[in-house]
Each structure stands twice: as C-alpha cells, then as structure tokens.
# Entry
Amino acid sequence: MKEKLVRDAIPSIIAREKGKVEYRKLSNQSEEYYKFLKNKLQEEVDEYFESDAIIEIADIYEVIINILNYRNIPLNEFEKIIEYKRYKKGSFNCGFCMKFEDQ
# Structure
C-alpha cells in the first residue's frame, strides 16, 4: 500500500466514516515530509491536467504554501520573487509561443 500526504482533516474524516484509520504524522521539518510534499505537488498537477478543474489549482497552491513554509520562505518574499521574474522576463499574459530546437 502506497503512502501519500493528505490534508490535515482527512484522517479524522475517514475515522468518522469507517471507524478506524491508520496514519503516521511526519515532522514538518523533516526531509521525508519535503519529499512527500514534492510528490503531492506532482500528484495535484497531474490531477489538474486530467480534470482541468480550478479546485485542483487550489490544491496545488496549498502544497506550494507548505513547500514555502518548509523552506522558511515567507509568502510575501515569494511574491517578491514572482514580481522580480515579471520585471526581468515578463509574465505569460501575451501568449507568445516560440519554437526551440530539441536538446
């Protein structure tokens, strides 16, 4: 059986529905937790690609917030990084698409 990171309330929700649930709590400062966060990010991105549902972007954002917390990067600092990238290279608003040779 594969382990995966779940939202904080999921164990209690499953326990209410099924009466028993097995889980373990990871330290939110451990490398293992970070590995599970990265796996969860990939899972949520895949789910978005499959469904095209905005709710999946909310899940992606939630995981990103937790990755930032793990890496001790305040959200306002992350927003500054986003603004810096926009200033240096722009955004994706114009929809420019270029051809590149395969590398």
Remarks:
- The chain is about 60% helix and 0% strand.
- Residues 27-76 form one domain.
- Residues 48 and 72 are 27 Å apart (CA to CA).
